[in-house]
Write a structure and sequence with these properties.
Helix content of chain A is 66%, strand content 0%. Helix content of chain B is 69%, strand content 0%. Classes of the chains: A mainly alpha (308), B mainly alpha (309).
Chain lengths: 308, 309
């Protein structure tokens, strides 16, 4: 941190020139100062990063501005930078004429249920795999690990056959059950439980605590950071999930937000950009707010597992 | 089968049998809820998908499984002769082969820039670059369709300022796929930036300093110190990105509907379409081909990572 502007004279044996003149810090070392560019902030690095950031954030601003423009202005060539006649009509249509409140509700119910299910089931199995000894444990972990990379596109056809035979097409159970027990969560929770000391469990056993109580009252409360990470990542994945809800939600009253937006975007509202931008804002802004509030958990989740 | 057959850690060796049995019971009780859901909704379908791909199951047979017959590898032989499938496979390869290096290159450049000793705004940049990753691909694709509108879109407007007449991006067989690739790189680079930044922390600063004193310039140090040290991280990031890209679906679904002339139809999209037509077993076969490719990519990663590190 503090080495940002001056090279440290610690290079020692490989830098005899530096050790020659330790009393004159700046002048004679000028050459080396230039050579060691690594810890020095360079103005053009900032320029490039800021430029990149504009490209990354720009589309979101354009979306937001677009959602407040009347239709006429959206078709205007060339477009005006700022809305000339800002309006809330797009949002009004979205929430009164179209059924976005329902889609919003559906997305929330599905995401919350899936998140809770994963937090409970994955921490239970994760703990068992990390800390308990029982026959068959290795097979279970192998199964979980083996399916970590199985993509949704591989299973959705037989899953649909199964779900329709269970009578769950176009229902909340149909939207929720296939994602209730994800291998990713088990992997993450197992890793975390393994980092907790066994002595906690032994001490509790000596005190006569029952096994399930040790899990629930002693070990689980120590997992709050991992649970937060898992909860956020699961909620997000579910909120943005598309293929399965598209397949299983067959009538409008069960659409989730991405399904509804996609259907509008390719249907008769195809070129109604104001409406589509307002719909995009409705999907994106809630997660953006959550992300900005809890961003360190995201970063930790990515760093822990590398999976988005 | 009871507690006697398991290998106990030394610390629990002195525990009475009853305690060990309790541990086994607790293990099963804690495993059961997950396993029940997991076997029915994940393992079952993975196996069923494979079996299904050797049958002639169609949507009309769903409630009447006795009408289904095994047809051997017919679906697979039909698949490889299917012009549209070949086109979709080619498009998927195009998307992966251009998209993965592009995304990784951009992410690496940003990660190295963020790691080059800048202290101010570091968190701000990290958050900013990660932003698109958390957003819905459907919403992002809708927004980009708006940006890429040939007349009123901002992209062609900006190009117009510098005297370039932008094409009709998503309606051109030439430009539709590159547009989708750039959008995907834009959306996905953020998670790679985080992964690469974590990897860069492992590169010792002393190596850079020593090399700099020996006269190595920034580019030489990047090539001969940073890149080799980052190899496992790069490989990991590459595979994770590739697995995601092999399944791309939302982007063409929203932006081009696979067109124009199937030029953005992906394997996953074609699978979905065949499912929509009721050709379940054919869709299952297609999905399995994709699955095998993904499994091979994952296996190769483990092989490469295991061999040199």
């Amino acid at each position: 941190m503090t080495t940002s502007t001056r090279p440290e004279p610690t290079a020692g044996p490989v830098a005899p020139v530096v050790t020659d003149a330790p009393e004159q810090p700046t002048r004679p070392r000028r050459r080396h100062h230039a050579a060691i560019a690594e810890p020095r902030p360079v103005p053009w690095v900032y320029a490039v990063l800021i430029g990149g950031l504009v490209v990354l954030v720009g589309p979101f601003l354009w979306m937001l501005l677009g959602s407040f423009r009347p239709d006429r202005e959206l078709k205007q060539v060339p477009p005006a930078w700022l809305p000339e006649n800002p309006t809330l009509d797009n949002y009004r249509t979205l929430f009164t004429e179209l059924d976005f409140p329902t889609y919003f509700f559906n997305s929330t119910v599905v995401a919350v249920a899936i998140t809770l299910g994963n937090l409970i089931f994955c921490s239970m199995l994760g703990y068992a795999l990390a800390k308990l000894h029982f026959p068959g444990k290795r097979i279970i972990f192998g199964l979980v690990l083996g399916t970590l990379m199985v993509p949704g596109v591989v299973t959705f056809v037989p899953l649909f056959v199964l779900v329709s035979n269970l009578g769950m097409v176009n229902s909340f159970p149909g939207l929720i059950f296939p994602f209730l027990a994800g291998p990713f969560g088990v992997f993450l929770m197992r890793q975390f439980f393994q980092s907790l000391p066994d002595e906690l469990i032994h001490a509790a056993r000596v005190d006569g605590a029952a096994e399930l109580r040790i899990f629930w009252s002693i070990m689980l409360p120590l997992c709050k950071p991992a649970l937060a990470t898992l909860g956020i990542l699961t909620f997000l994945a579910s909120w943005n999930n598309f293929l399965w809800p598209l397949v299983v939600a067959q009538s409008e009253e069960k659409y989730t937000l991405p399904v509804a937006l996609a259907i509008y975007a390719i249907g008769e509202n195809k070129s109604d950009y104001g409406l589509l931008m307002a719909g995009s804002v409705a999907i994106i802004v809630p997660v953006l707010l959550v992300f900005l509030a809890l961003q360190k958990h995201f970063v930790r989740g990515i760093a822990m597992t590398g999976i988005k | 089968m009871t507690a006697g057959s398991i290998s106990s850690p030394p610390s629990s060796r002195r525990r009475p049998d009853r305690g060990r049995r309790r541990e086994v019971v607790a293990g099963y009780v804690l495993s059961l809820p997950f396993l029940a859901v997991f076997l029915v909704f994940t393992i079952g379908p993975v196996i069923a998908s494979f079996v299904m791909s050797f049958t002639d199951l169609r949507s009309s047979d769903v409630r009447n499984p006795l009408a289904v017959a095994f047809v051997g590898v017919e679906n697979y032989s039909k698949l490889f002769a299917d012009e549209t499938f070949r086109k979709a496979a080619f498009n998927t390869a195009y998307f992966v082969v251009i998209g993965v290096p592009l995304t990784m290159g951009l992410a690496l450049a940003v990660a190295v820039a963020l790691d080059s000793g800048i202290t101010r705004l570091r968190t701000f940049f990290r958050v900013g670059y990660y932003l698109p990753v958390v957003t819905s691909i459907v919403a992002v694709a809708v927004v980009w369709r708006f940006l890429l509108d040939p007349d009123s879109g901002i992209v062609n407007t900006l190009l117009g300022y510098v005297g370039i007449e932008g094409p009709s991006w998503l309606k051109s067989t030439t430009w539709a796929m590159p547009s989708i690739i750039v959008m995907s790189a834009w959306r996905n680079m953020g998670s790679l930036v985080i992964i690469f930044l974590a990897g860069l922390q492992v590169v010792p600063k002393e190596m850079h300093e020593a090399a700099a004193i020996d006269g190595a310039g920034p580019w030489a140090r990047f090539r001969h110190i940073t890149l080799p040290m980052l190899r496992p991280t790069l490989l990991f990031g590459g595979v994770v990105t590739m697995i995601g890209y092999l399944q791309f679906f939302e982007e063409p679904f929203v932006m081009t509907r696979g067109g124009p002339l199937d030029s953005t139809l992906s394997t996953a999209y074609y699978t979905y379409n065949q499912f929509g037509f009721g050709n379940y077993s054919y869709a299952a076969a297609m999905a399995y081909v994709l699955f095998v490719v993904i499994a091979l990519v994952t296996a190769l990663q483990f092989k490469w990572l295991g061999s040199k590190d």
